[in-house]
Write a structure and sequence with these properties.
Blueprint: H1 9-22, H2 27-67, H3 72-116
Helix pairs in contact: 1-3, 2-3
């Protein structure tokens, strides 16, 4: 895997999930899955923090445009750029959040399979 600009998180998640679903439940598999789940939770937290900071910056730009009309052209440009950035950021965060939720269910399934094993 040659990822020039870091990992492709969607491919990484898709490949891991497919590999976990294809293997029988073992303690080592559950441990590996929980380790990667921890990484994904950290990634999600970092993206949440950046998302909140970007929303606050967008609100500041809206404030400038509404309360200080003399900054309107610059504030409008910043608002537009941040709105586009936020759209992509919300979409990516939505992906991370749903993947973490799916991986919780996958971990539960592995744990149940291990508990039910003789």
């Amino acid at each position: 895997m040659n990822d020039r600009f870091g990992i492709n998180i969607k491919r990484y998640c898709r490949e891991h999930e497919a590999a976990v679903r294809a293997q029988p439940a073992t303690p080592a598999l559950l441990e590996e899955h929980l380790r990667r789940l921890g990484w994904l939770q950290h990634e999600r937290l970092v993206h949440l923090i950046v998302l909140v900071m970007t929303v606050l910056t967008e609100l500041f730009a809206v404030d400038l445009a509404v309360l200080h009309p003399e900054t309107n052209p610059l504030a409008a440009a910043v608002m537009l750029l941040l709105a586009v950035l936020l759209a992509f950021y919300f979409w990516h965060y939505f992906f991370l959040e749903n993947t973490v939720q799916r991986w919780y269910k996958l971990a539960d399934r592995l744990q149940r399979a291990l508990n039910d094993a003789p």
